[in-house]
Specification:
Length: about 150
């Protein structure tokens, strides 16, 4: 089975809330929705349906990734030191997505293969955090006068 990330959108619901948090603590938080296509690969339609059905069962059985499950499923952590990006309260919801036939066909038009049986899923809300900001010292004005005594 292939899992293809075909679109990345900012999450319209959480964008303002995380922007406010970032303004308060000096970090950047980008809330994203990741759109995937699950595509089974087999020699015949029956096997394709069985593979796709099993993949969908697995996603329905664990529709929310959080805690250690989210941390293990995520990409490798960034190289900079600090806390892991996935805090205990973070969660990503995996759910079936509705996509028009036209949009699906446009997606396959941009791929090197012909159309295959596929099911769209969305991972919502994936958050990318920036490194902790380093506070800059305040600007200090110095007013010096030069006196010449005669």
């Amino acid at each position: 089975m292939t899992i293809l990330l075909y679109r990345v959108d900012f999450n319209k619901t959480m964008r303002a809330a995380w922007s406010a948090v970032g303004n308060a603590d000096g970090r950047g938080y980008l809330a994203l929705d990741l759109h995937y296509l699950l595509t089974p690969w087999a020699d015949n339609a029956e096997h394709q349906h069985m593979i796709l059905g099993r993949g969908m069962q697995a996603l329905e059985q664990t529709p929310v990734l959080s805690g250690p499950t989210l941390f293990e499923a995520s990409l490798p952590q960034p190289a900079y030191a600090g806390e892991p990006q996935s805090a205990a309260s973070d969660a990503v919801q995996l759910m079936l997505e509705e996509i028009s036939t036209e949009a699906l066909m446009r997606t396959f038009d941009s791929l090197p293969s012909d159309y295959r049986l596929s099911v769209p899923y969305v991972a919502r809300v994936v958050r990318i955090d920036t490194a902790e900001s380093v506070p800059t010292p305040p600007v200090v004005d110095a007013d010096t006068e030069l006196r010449v005594d005669s």
